[in-house]
Design a protein that fits this description.
39% helix; homohexamer; 4 strands; two-stranded antiparallel ribbon; 69 residues; two-stranded parallel sheet; Macrophage Migration Inhibitory Factor; alpha+beta
């Protein structure tokens, strides 16, 4: 029974409830299809990381967004 | 010095302060007893995941709880 | 740019190279579709955990498989 | 259904099969007792980290062990 | 493209925005220098763990701080 | 006492012992300097992920390297 952890940016970029349900559904189906495993107890955890706490290429996502404006 | 990470559902299912202290104490003692390691600096992190972000078998915990009512 | 971590059992239950490519492809596409994010740098890590190191319901997967024979 | 991840040093400090089973059993029981949750599908993953890859206080565990001889 | 996750205590011990930017910058530069990798898409995630959820040596950080007063 | 986890590609791209020691030393010093914390027990874990298990933008690192030849 695999375990999946998805980290995404939160704050104003946070996924909606519907998007989270779709991600959980989609990942669970994908793993069932590809690995042929019983997924009835497969755990998917989505963690929303604040934009000041998520760095890409040395800059926080918050700073990156500002520099793109 | 091992490191332990425990993910549980948060929101109304979040563990109480006392429960968290018991988990930290219990896991630390267990690892000391089983592995015979010095646990004076053993780190245990408990992460509370919102019920909309915790999926089991393709459904969010929030949806699972509703469907059981 | 989300980050995805998938933990599965290894040893004789380890996914094949093709299955790993399918999981990486599928998860990346899913996140792009659902969140509408640029996924050109999305990281997916698959970790294969030995069956003696993966516990479900208090038993290692190794033990669970034996008890099902 | 909580998820637990335990990182310990591997190589010659790796836990034995019996110790891993005891850790899985013990953590599962502890969480059941403390949180009163159904643990029949609780996942515990033990990851063995090579001593050259595990740093404490700025030194790898390998180096720390040498300096204690 | 490495992925880095830093867990620190939150609440009144949470790092400031400037400290988080410095950590992200510093870790990204360090990995670029040491591993010679292109770090333009290197992901660094900083997770702030509440002091009641962070255990060291069997006690929550909250309790440890109290006992030091 | 923060906890740091670094995931890098393994196999022929794995960091050397010296590089791992430098990463551990560097990250520990950085956190001490930026957060002013006692780092004598700070844990840094480096995980080497096989190139078939590390996906970027929908392709395994193995495939990406081939397509760049």
């Amino acid at each position: 029974m695999p375990y999946v952890n998805i980290k995404v940016t939160g704050d104003e970029e946070a996924p909606t409830k519907e998007q989270k349900q779709k991600l959980i559904e989609g990942v669970t189906k994908l793993i069932g299809d590809v690995l042929g495993k019983n997924t009835s107890n497969l755990v998917v955890v989505i963690e929303e990381i604040p934009m000041d706490n998520y760095g890409i290429g040395g800059l926080t996502v918050r700073e990156r967004r500002k520099s793109k404006k």
